[in-house]
Design goal:
This protein is an alpha/beta fold. It has 13 helices and eight strands. An eight-stranded mixed beta sheet has the order 3-2-4-1-5-6-7-8, with helices on both faces. Helix 5 crosses helix 6 and helix 11 packs parallel to helix 12.
């Protein structure tokens, strides 16, 4: 493979998080005549009445759950609640419009025979989300022979390179052999950054020159991993705008290159998304999935997010499971996704 030309990968687009604007722009399902809405008054209970948020999974979920209910309490306490307000509150949590409408419809069915309380909102939301969210996505295991190739993709600014290092640390901590490939060759800083991580973790990293062909580098990295009987080869790719077809084409070229060694490789293609970017993360997932076929997500910045519903929206609308969540800035702050605990903490 010959050298490739450097490409300007741009910057992460500004997140689209104005839920009110989103609601105003949608015409299907969201605007129903008031006559079709059964009258309802919701008694919003204090968060501590609804459940225990202090037990279970990692610490990132606690502020997410408390913020979710705090917003409901502040918005609806002491006054009647109409469906439009409830819809907006749910969309603002990044659940997505389809899931929001699904939850509201289920609550409307219940409202015909009983007074809706905050417990009803939590119960119905939990049940509807549980129908689509996998409790435990399948773990990533090594192959019987040859390296399992994991391609890590995403736009700049999501924590992609750091997540690649965390993933290597995760597998090494479980007594697996790991090799990194610094295929983000369009940013010299990314190569150096991953090199520092590799040294700290204690794994080998295959690197090339700045502006080297990332497809050729991944091809060579597979050969090196195969010779050394490495179980996991994790390839960090260049951050790219999901709306740029030429850049997505470069990523497809990387996949074709690896497939010359193993027709099923890459065996996993994980998209790194920032939980705080809301609906923009859904757009990224849709475009990357269309181009390279995603097998899962690594969701970052959940530790500082008051939302986290994008995990549900992407699963519901695209069928892409969350495989790992970033819970902090340290190399060990990466955990397998647990749907049961996620639902319990969010709702």
């Amino acid at each position: 493979m010959g050298p490739t030309t450097a490409v300007d990968v741009g910057q992460n687009p500004r997140p689209v998080d104005d839920a009110a604007a989103l609601l105003r722009g949608l015409t299907v399902g969201l605007k129903r005549p008031k006559s079709q809405m059964p009258p309802v008054r919701c008694r919003i209970q204090r968060a501590e009445e609804i459940g225990n948020f202090s037990t279970g999974w990692t610490s990132f979920a606690t502020p997410m759950a408390m913020n979710f209910f705090k917003s409901l309490v502040q918005k609806f306490a002491g006054k009647p609640v109409d469906w439009d307000e409830l819809e907006e509150a749910l969309v603002r949590s990044d659940l997505g419009v389809p899931m929001t409408l699904r939850i509201v419809a289920a609550l409307q069915d219940r409202a015909t025979s009983t007074t809706i309380t905050a417990n009803d909102v939590a119960e119905v939301a939990r049940d509807e989300i549980a129908r689509v969210l996998p409790i435990a996505p399948p773990p990533i295991r090594p192959l019987p022979a040859g390296p399992k190739v994991i391609l890590v993709v995403g736009v700049n600014g999501t924590g992609k390179t750091t997540s690649t290092a965390k993933l290597a640390h995760y597998f090494k901590g479980r007594r697996h052999t790991v090799m990194l490939a610094a295929a983000d060759t369009f940013r010299a800083a990314a190569i150096e950054q991953l090199g520092v991580w590799a040294e700290r973790i204690g794994v080998e990293m295959i690197r090339g020159q700045y502006n080297a062909d990332p497809a050729a580098l991944c091809y060579d990295a597979y050969q090196a991993a195969d010779r050394q009987d490495i179980e996991f080869l994790i390839c960090d790719t260049a951050g790219r705008l999901h709306t740029k077809s030429n850049l997505m084409g470069e990523l497809e070229k990387v996949k074709r290159s690896i497939a010359k060694h193993d027709a099923k490789a890459p065996h996993e293609t994980l998209l790194v998304v920032d939980a705080t970017t809301g609906s923009n993360a859904l757009s990224q997932a849709r475009e990357f999935h269309q181009s390279v076929g995603l097998t899962g997500l690594i969701v970052t910045k959940l530790d500082g997010s008051g939302k986290g519903g994008i995990v549900i929206a992407i699963q519901n609308e695209l069928g892409i499971p969350t495989r790992f969540v970033g819970t902090g800035e340290k190399v060990g702050d990466l955990e397998p996704f647990d749907g049961r605990e996620f639902i319990a903490k969010m709702l």
